[in-house]
Each structure stands twice: as structure tokens, then as C-alpha cells.
Amino acid sequence: MDKIDARNVNFYYGNFHALKNISMQIEEKSVVAFIGPSGCGKSTFLRLFNRMNDLIPDTRLNGKILIDGNNIYDKNIEVDELRKNVGMVFQRPNPFPKSIFENVAYGLRVNGIKDKKFIADRVEETLKGAALWDEVKDKLKESAYALSGGQQQRLCIARAMAVSPSVLLMDEPASALDPISTAKVEELIRELKKNYTIIVVTHNMQQASRVSDKTAFFYLGEMIEYNNTQKIFTNPDKEATQNYITGRFG
Ligand SMILES: Nc1ncnc2c1ncn2[C@@H]1O[C@H](COP(=O)(O)OP(=O)(O)OP(=O)(O)O)[C@@H](O)[C@H]1O
Hints:
Protein name: Phosphate ABC transporter ATP-binding protein PstB
Shape: globular
Number of strands: 10
Low-confidence stretches: none
Mean pLDDT: 95
Helix content: 25-40%
Bound molecules: adenosine-5'-triphosphate
Radius of gyration: 18 Å
Largest sheet: 6 strands, mixed
Pfam families: ABC_tran (PF00005)
Order of helices and strands: EEEHEEHEHHHHEHEHEEHH
GO molecular function, one term: ATP binding
Strand order of the largest sheet: 6-7-8-3-9-10
Domain ABC transporter: 4-245
Keywords: ATP-binding, Nucleotide-binding, Phosphate transport, Transport
Structural class: alpha/beta
């Protein structure tokens, strides 16, 4: 069974038809990149997977999105539980104004976990998983704002990981970072796919080709082509994809 199965998804902001009949299957423990010019619907589609668009008034969804076989838009779905399972990382690192430790512990505390040893162990394990432990282990009590932008972004990835999601959504996670920090985030994404299913929106086509197994090209609310990343970047089926990846528009 596919980890994620979107079927005939249409999405509207008011009367604006932002996503047009998109169907996509995503295998477990793989990385999928969403590419396409600005405004084509990549972030809108990404945000459907943890129901972030529910927060925007006057929006409408048709179709189904199954995760582990369950339609996440069914009435009996608990959105808080869904968001625990489907974590999200944003474009700009947005750590809380708290210590490094408390940023990672936050989700556990919100979920009512009080056992100090459990929390400390989980924070350590998560920071190790996010390849940040060695850089922060001696300053866990310091403010997260004292970290570099790239470290803050890896901390935000750790914060998302702490509550044991199985899916991570990343909306241009490296676009605000310098090349070295970007390389570290990309390395982390490749490492994380051993345990997580990851969707990453990116404007950077080299990045898509470095980190993802499959790539979806979006244009004007449609998914034009979805295939193995290598195929998309070497021999795409559609002319529009070819034009985009060779920089003819976008
Ligand atoms: N909250 C909103 N209300 C109304 N329209 C919106 C809203 N958010 C996005 N849109 C519109 O939906 C379309 C898709 O936007 P979206 O942000 O998903 O595109 P994108 O491909 O992620 O763009 P970018 O690469 O610039 O982030 C755009 O035309 C945008 O103007």
C-alpha cells in the first residue's frame, strides 16, 4: 500500500480553482519533490497533507487524500493526531523563543508528557537524528535564537520529529539558508528518508535532483508530470516540463 494516495484532488480559494484534479501516490520512506513556477499550487497541495488549509476561510476541497489507507478528510479524523503524524517545516526557520532543549521538548509537553527522563532522552535522540546533537549538546539551555539560521532550521526539523511523525512536509526548507547550511539540510533529508516519508517543495532544481526519488512538476494548478526524479531531469515526457527544467520559463 502507498503511504500517501491523493485521488482527484480539487481545491478552491473562494471561486479560484487552485488545484485541478490531482492524483498522486507516494511510497513509504521516499522523498518526493514538488517543483514548478511561483503560484502553481505547490504549497497549497503540500498543506493539504496535514490539513493546514483548514485554517484558511472560504476554501473547499474535493477528492480524497489517504495516508496509511485512511482518508484524512473523514469526519472522524482527529486533526491534532494527524498533525502529530504529519509534521511540517517552513521556509524560514521559526524556532520558539525558548531554549534549544525546550524547542524540541515542546511537542512532548503539549502532549501531556511529564516524565523528565523520558523527555531528556527523547530530546537527545531527536537532536542526534537531526544531526545537530554534537553542535548543541553543550548549550541546550541557551536560546534557540543563538544558533545560526541553518542550525535553527535543523532544530525546527528536530522539533517536528520529536513527536514521532511518519511524514514530514517541507516547504522550501533551505531557501533562506547559505550554501553550506543548505548542503547540511539536504544531507539530513537524505538521511531522514530511512525513517520518514518526505515531501519537499523547492524552487531549486539541483536540490530536487539531489534529494528526491520522485519529482512532480506543477503548472497553473495542474500536476503536469510525476515521475522518477532522474527521468524528470533527463528525459521528461512533457514539453512543459522540459521547458521548465531548462529554464525557459518560471
Ligand atoms: N490564502 C490564499 N487565499 C487565496 N488565494 C491563495 C491563497 N494562498 C494561495 N493562493 C493562490 O493559490 C495559487 C497557488 O498558490 P501556492 O502558494 O500554492 O503556489 P506555490 O506554487 O507554492 O507558489 P510559490 O512557489 O510562490 O510558493 C496562487 O495563485 C495563489 O495566489
